Amino acid sequence: MTTVASRNRIHAIGPHVAQRIAAGTADPSTDRSNQIADALPRARNQTRRSLEDTARVRALAPGELAFRQGDPIPLTLMLHGHAALRRTTADGRELVLGIASRGWLFGFSSIAGSLAGVDLVAATPAEVAVWPGDEVRSLVVNDPGLALDVIDGMANYLVHLSDRMDGFIHQDARRRVLRVLVQHEDLFFGEAQVLSRVQLPGLVGTSREMTRRVVRELEREGVIARVGKRGLRLVSPDRLHQAMGLSSSEAS
Fold it and tell me: Is residue 216 predicted with pLDDT exceeding 50?
């Protein structure tokens, strides 16, 4: 197993995806089967072939929904691009619980017939493969390896969700903004900017005005700079990481 890391954000990817990233190429005819194999390492080969044959592949434009909160959730594999897991609260606030990227497999609760607790909305041009939960459930019954992969996937999601909720509850606005900027540093400040100031309040879990205040404060400190109506530029990576370390014991 190989990891692609961005400071506090570490995403595990399998050997097939890692090899193609290193080579800078991906064969469309084998890419989906390799990603399924990487995401479900314990599943039988027959199970993986069945998933490959029955996958519903969708291309998404930025802002387009793959599934909607409250609808039946499918098992979903991110093939390309980035998408936000966005939840609308009872009082109408939008929270972004995570950013899904290439190789992420989620929606395991579909096997129990659960409804989606979030929207999956494309942040960039993206492609997903989806499977209805009842189809996956029949495969789980006959494949203990797939069942273990499902258990691991659900456990990892619960840990991720717990970490996100802890950040929402126990951190002030400045700490939340810093944490998000460090966690998604490559997506906010990379050559191909994926996230912008528009998504920041949802990721941070504070109001737009409160988020803007923190951004202006960090701009005065020479940490970041606003670019146009949506963009951010990282002025000093050292100051960003120092500010995170000074304001949060979780900066490791």
Answer: yes
